[in-house]
Specification:
- The chain is about 25% helix and about 20% strand.
- It contains seven helices and nine strands; from the N terminus they run βαββαβααβαββαβαβ.
- β1, α1 (about 25-30) and β2 (about 40-45) form a beta-alpha-beta unit.
- It is globular.
Length: about 260
């Protein structure tokens, strides 16, 4: 097979035993697609790679990466996979953690740190951030515990993100930290879509207050829209009115 003109590629890797994945095979596969622009990878494996990536591949057109991680995929597998790519050139990143099988919350946290704490360049800040050029970010999480420390790691790694879309489980802890402003996180944010389909506004009154305070002082100078989606609730007029007082027409409130 010849892959020289492939621009979009989907790869599903599932392995029910602990046999190692062969790094040389993965590198050869991706290297055979020099025009690759969009890559989607689904991982559900027990084993890890048999070696680290010797260097990051030259895929100059790769701009979009989608990852779905499930099962008991080891942290080291993700770290070695990310070592294949120049993540600093990506402009779009999409993640899915669908918990198709039972997943330990500590394993989920290790996945997040494997993805966002790896180094793709020297230094810190925008120059050294692993996803320095990402403008569009989306993440879907089911049945796993989300906390502010997870979002700390994510948004530190993408200092120039502009459009964020999150679909989160009902047992979400605090989403926004007041300390993010000290670290200049999300300062380029334009749109935020937050879907909580199993949650009512009453369940996260504290989080809604945090959101109002975060966006109420003009910190995000280019901010255009906040979309919140909840399950239908018998009386959500008050929390909606409070946020509308802060955001005005920039607020989109959806109950379904």
């Amino acid at each position: 097979l010849q892959f020289g003109n492939v621009t979009s590629f989907n790869l599903h890797v599932q392995n029910d035993d602990s046999d190692p994945l062969h790094m040389a095979v993965f590198r050869a596969l991706f290297q055979s697609m020099p025009k690759l622009e969009s890559l989607s990878i689904s991982l559900d494996v027990y084993g890890t790679f048999d070696a680290d990536s010797e260097s990051r591949l030259a895929l100059p057109s790769l701009r979009s990466l989608e990852l779905q991680i499930d099962g008991t995929t080891p942290r080291s597998t993700i770290e070695k996979l990310m070592g294949i790519f120049h993540t600093q050139q990506l402009t779009s990143l999409s993640l899915k953690f669908l918990a198709l099988q039972a997943v330990d919350d500590y394993l989920f946290l290790s996945w997040i740190f494997a993805l966002f704490k790896h180094s793709s360049g020297p230094g810190r800040g925008s120059i050294g951030a692993p996803f320095a050029m990402v403008r569009d970010f989306s993440m879907e999480v089911r049945r796993l515990q989300c906390s502010v420390s997870i979002f700390d790691a994510i948004f530190e790694a993408m200092p120039n993100v502009q459009n964020v879309s999150l679909k989160l489980p009902e047992h979400m802890k605090r989403f926004i930290s007041p300390f993010w402003k000290n670290d200049h996180l999300l300062q380029h944010l334009r749109t935020l879509r937050l879907a909580l389909p199993l949650t009512s506004p009453d369940d996260i009154s504290g989080e809604l207050s945090d959101i109002g305070e975060f966006f109420g002082d003009g910190y995000c100078k280019d901010f255009e829209m906040l979309e919140l989606q909840f399950r239908k609730h018998y009386d959500s007029a008050l929390p909606k009115a409070r946020l509308f007082d802060v955001l005005g027409e920039k607020l989109r409130w959806i109950e379904c």
